[in-house]
Amino acid sequence: MRIQYFIFILVVIVGLYSCQKDDDLKEDTTDTITIDSLTANYYSVMAWDTTTINCYATGDSLTYSWECDHGNFNGSGNQIRYAAGQCCVGINTVICSVSNHFGVVSDEIKIEVTPYIQK
What we know:
Blueprint: H1 2-18, H2 29-32, E1 34-40, E2 44-46, E3 50-58, E4 63-68, E5 72-76, E6 79-83, E7 90-100, E8 103-114
Parallel strand pairs: 2-8
Antiparallel strand pairs: 1-3, 3-6, 4-7, 5-6, 7-8
């Protein structure tokens, strides 16, 4: 009888413990930060030309960071100016990450860089 009582108590304790809400769980980042759009003035540019890229996001206390696989950019915040040289001809990817105390979300945009043609 004692073993059955012990097992019953153990099952009740495990059941109560497993039903507790974990306050340490983080919110779903996509509910907190949303990138509404990532747009460029020009999606195709000749080498050495530039295009302005804007990230429009919603959320509190947002911080923006940028990276690209080829080329370079100037600026910060939600707007940069992207350029790539002759060595970067092709489709290049620019990634914008938006973060705050809840987490981070990212989106990417493709920019076609064509060879420079001297006029």
